[in-house]
Design goal:
It is a single chain. This protein has 12 helices and no strands. By secondary structure, it is mainly alpha-helical. It has one domain. The longest helix has 26 residues.
Length: 260
């Protein structure tokens, strides 16, 4: 028999790829899961603020249903950790590809301020609460930091290096003092993604270390490795901007006025 007839066809394994649109969808879905767990489950169903730590432990021990709800809420928030590295990565991609940095920054800042009332309503059941700020402020501060890093990206020597360090430390302190949700990790990840953009192994190792604080955050790096840099479905961008305040507003109204 001819040897060529005996040969098995060659199987070529090809990794899947994901576009910017795909990353945004995945990030929004996991963020929605986080928000439902934190607002609807923990605040709306469990009323977590009504318990001290000791009282909660006793209540969970005495009520298996309450324990199940607490487990579900915690699991949903852990899943939300996927979103943090993705939003930091997307902020860097947006910075690199935008044709107008000022307009881009102003859009993000406007979104941060618009989202603050829905965020307070969903997470604190209050119309104004300064104990923690919404995560879009972390992206806005990251964009300012990236601008400063970009000014010194070509510089060599002590002065440019110190300028880059000051930009990152300043952004980190800013989001920490403002108590921005996911702020410190967002800033650090954005700095890593930008400074080590072409050094995939180092970028991934450093990013994984920072992302460990969110438990599931390191898993997002699989999607980042599959990113193909294609900018598709840009007409959906306005909906991605609207998603954040709208989903928080809906959750806030449900929890504040129908479950309190």
């Amino acid at each position: 028999m001819n040897n060529t007839m005996m040969r098995k066809p060659k199987v070529v394994w090809k990794l899947p790829s994901i576009t910017t649109f795909g990353l945004k969808v995945f990030a929004c879905v996991t963020l929605l899961i986080y928000s439902i767990g934190a607002s609807f489950v923990q605040d709306g169903l469990i009323h977590l603020d009504n318990y001290t730590q000791a009282e909660l432990a006793q209540a969970l021990e005495a009520d298996s249903h309450l324990m199940m709800l607490a487990g579900i809420g915690s699991a949903m928030q852990i899943i939300g950790g996927f979103a943090v590295p993705l939003f930091a990565f997307l902020a860097v991609e947006g910075f690199r590809h935008t044709s107008d940095y000022k307009k881009y920054l102003l859009r993000v800042l406007a979104l941060a301020f618009i989202s603050e009332l829905p965020y307070d309503l969903a997470m604190q059941q209050s119309f104004m609460d300064f104990s923690m700020q919404n995560s879009v402020f972390g992206i806005a501060v990251s964009l300012m930091m990236l601008y400063a890093l970009d000014l010194y990206k070509e510089g060599k020597g002590v002065v440019p290096a110190l300028a880059r360090i000051c930009a990152v430390v300043g952004a980190f302190l800013w989001v920490s003092l403002l108590r921005v949700q996911f702020g410190p990790s967002t800033v650090l990840l954005a700095a890593i993604f930008y400074l080590f953009y072409a050094r995939n192994v180092l970028k991934t190792l450093l990013g994984l270390l920072v992302s460990l604080v969110h438990i599931t955050g390191p898993l997002s790096f699989y999607l980042i490795w599959l990113y193909n840099e294609e900018q598709k479905h840009e007409e959906w961008n306005r909906w991605f901007y609207l998603f954040y305040p709208l989903h928080l507003l809906v959750l806030g109204i449900i929890v504040k006025f129908f479950m309190s």
